[in-house]
Amino acid sequence: MKTLIIGATGQIGKMTTEKMLASGHDVVALVRDKSKLSALESNHLTIVEQDLENDFSRAFEGVEQVIFSAGSGGATGADKTLLIDLWAAVKAINYAVDAKVKHFIMVSSIGADAPDNIESSIKPYLVAKHMADQHLINSELNYSIVRPGTLLNDAATGLLTTTRPATRQDAVINREDVADTLLYLAEHTPKKQQVFELFNGDKSIDSLLND
């Protein structure tokens, strides 16, 4: 199954791209600057250079699955949050519907279910994620929405939970564990749509998602 990864030069996106290629998957990496993937060489990799603020529908040609892990980044303002985390995600979902993809995997965020419950500077980001998630839920696509906790750069442990911890400081997840989860989802298309939060925990990915 050919998989389009949107945001393939971000931290999670790049890890996921590398893991997908290492597992022998055909990957289309949608990036704004292809030089950021210059170290990746694989006969299974196709790089499409395109700005998400423009029309990027051609990247969906021949694609059966999509992973959306793009983000505007913490250093940008609310304008980029609106254009990338919301509008680019909406466009990607619409392109995926037109392309009749079999599975759309969205990297969202903890708090995207109810942005009003979190008073912080990231509320515009959570609102954008919420609206993008809702657009996906209301589409005709088969989807998996992953809402990670606060992201850490530690190595993957392979031990996770979808139950939100009682304290904010425990509501964390290693980026590599998120990438491993995306790989698992790409290799195990769910029979029904799913939305779940993800944190460091005590269960393997397989047992967690098949309980």
UniProtKB/TrEMBL annotation:
InterPro entries: NAD(P)-bd_dom, NAD(P)-bd_dom_sf. It comes from the Bacteria. CDD domains: SDR_a5. SUPFAM superfamilies: NAD(P)-binding Rossmann-fold domains. Gene3D superfamilies: NAD(P)-binding Rossmann-like Domain (3.40.50.720). It holds the Pfam family NAD_binding_10. Residues 7-188 form the NAD(P)-binding domain. PANTHER family: FLAVIN REDUCTASE-RELATED, UPF0659 PROTEIN YMR090W. This is Sugar epimerase YhfK.
